[in-house]
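call fold(seq) -> tokens
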Amino acid sequence: MEPIKVFIVEDESIVREGIRDMIPWEQYGFVFSGEAPDGEVALPMVRRIRPDILITDIKMPFMDGLSLSRLVNRELPDTRIIILSGYDDFEYAQQAIELHVDQYLLKPISRANMIKALEQTRSRIQEEREQKEYLQVFTREAREYEAYSRRVFFEKLVSGALSVKEIYEQAEQLEIDLDAECYNIVLFSIHMPGNVTGYSEELSRAEETLLQAFIRMPDLLLFRSSLLSHAVLIKGTAEEVRTLTDQCVEAIGQHCGSRDLSVDWHVAVGTPVTRLSGLHQCYAAVSHALAFRHLIPRQHVLTVDLLRQNRASGESYSAVDAGKLDPSIITGFVEKGLLEELDDFVTEFFGDLGSAVDSMMFRHYLILSTRINALAAIRELGLDRETLLRRLPQAEIDLSGESLKLYFRDVLYTAISLRDEETRKQSGSIVSSAVQYIDQHYTDENISLNHVARAINVSTNYLSAIFSQSMGQSFVEYLTMKRMTRAKQFLRQSNKRSGEIAAEVGYKDPRYFSFVFKKTQGCTPREYRAGESDHERNRETDR
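ret:
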């Protein structure tokens, strides 16, 4: 613990020097850091030194102790104040109480009383410092939970499930500042070619560099929108949003388009809106734009305005030649597309074919090509081709119109569903390994998300994403719940002391254990052992 700095302000030099010289400061863990004859002289010195304890006389010329205390309280709220007074006056004492002064001592002051007052004040300072340190540690540990909570909030925000009032309330709880006159959404997807799980060290490296870039841009709020895609919510004035949108797209292109990386990446840019309630439509439009990455895979940046202009001009989005359909469009969608993008993809795919579907020969080719390329994509992903063959719908040779479109959709749906099943199996296996490792090692005080990821040989970012997606809670929430559950068993079923229980469940600092217990359970370990938890008090009240 850092030594406690003490500063004295007293107009009577004999009293000031007497206090200064009668206390063996270092022996009691203090540092005498300065003195002054009145508040006016003291204030600039106090601002510079920033003492932990200010001892000040209440009645002084130029600036009295109460005036000095008011200024110090406002500018240096962590500095504790001890008032000295030769006046046994209730009004002074009352003002001192209103200023949250720690001690009010009447002159003459003995060495024993001064040491007692100093030690009591130091105890409060140390307790506050500990609480701040514990809160900082707890906050760092809770970042995983915050990331999961932010994702859930974003999903509700862009789905239109929240009223404007609910948006602001939930944003305030998550400490997300959404006040702005204009908003926009940018979606980006990065993945490894032909990787069914989406996991690789290279992908993790790309994500990490992007996350670091966005941390330095506070007006860009980053959310994970799916396992392999992220969303950036941009806010500011209309002009700022335009500039920030360009900067966001440029940052993604610079990081993902690096020659050092071989990831596939695409960015979709929305159209700015002036209301939070308009983000639902903004997100729907930008999601539709991102789905075009499967039709024009070489186009990395997709904008809602560009697609709208192309549609109005009648130009082809995908450059699909009806006479020679590119097989990579279907295989690419099976490998990387999402089920929620399927309807947009099918609609635009058939829209681009135009009058080609009037040809029976082309329809036969499309039916065969869809089936063959879906099977080819599944084989390329290393999945069971026979399973897909058994599940694929049977096609009649004379399919046309909506029937042809429905068949096309069903084939893609079946192939992507099979791919996602395998992904879930692999993700489930990874999460199961993580949970098993946590259950076996939760008492290790050094366990962390990074530690678990290394132990089961996956990237930290990937484990964080699939763990929260699969478990419905973050890694930190699960670990803390595991520890608290065991701690409550010890508290009710054993005579172990709180410090022993802390060590048993993975906390080397028993005071931090008590802090976390109260933060998560609503009562101290002692209160819980005595049956005084909030839950039990409520149950008693209900009776």
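Strands lie at 4-9, 30-36, 53-57, 80-85, 103-106, 182-191, 220-226, 229-236, 264-269, 301-303.
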